[in-house]
C-alpha cells in the first residue's frame, strides 16, 4: 500500500486500485457508529480516528485546498450521521462547517 498525503491506494479483489473504482483520492465510507444525537463522544472519537487514518483530520478544522477532497470528506461526514441530525448540518457546505454545527450536540 502506497500512501500520499490525503490519499490512500488500496486494492479490491480484482487487483484494481480503489482510485480506479472510486475515482482518484476517494475515501471509503465511514463504517463506525452513526451519530444519533446521544453518542457524540464515541462518534467524535471514531470519526476523527477514521480521518487520521486518511491524513484528513485537518478537514474538520480548516478548509482544504483540494476542493474535490473537501467535498468527499463532507459527503462521508453527512453519510455518517443519522437523518434525524440532518437539521443541524443542512445549511453547511464544508466539513469544517458541518463539524462545528455537530459539536453543538
Main β-sheet, spatial strand arrangement: 1-2
Q: Kindly state the mean pLDDT as a whole number?
A: 84
Biggest sheet statistics = 2 strands, antiparallel
Number of domains: 1
* Proportion of beta-strand residues: under 5%
Q: Roughly how many Å is the radius of gyration? A: 14 Å
What does this protein structure show overall?
The protein has 105 residues and is mainly alpha-helical. The chain has one domain (3-102). 42% of the residues lie in helices and 4% in strands. It is built from five helices and two strands. The chain has helices spanning 18-22, 40-53, 67-79, 86-89, 95-102; strands at residues 3-4, 7-8. A two-stranded antiparallel sheet has the order 1-2. Strand 1 and strand 2 (7-8) form a beta hairpin. Helix 3 runs parallel beside helix 5 (95-102). The termini are far apart. Residues 16-22 have low confidence and may be disordered.
Nutshell version of this structure?
The chain has 105 residues and is mostly helical. Helix content is 42%, strand content 4%. 21% of the residues are buried.
What are the key terms here?
globular, 5 helices, 2 strands, 4% strand, 105 residues, mainly alpha, single chain
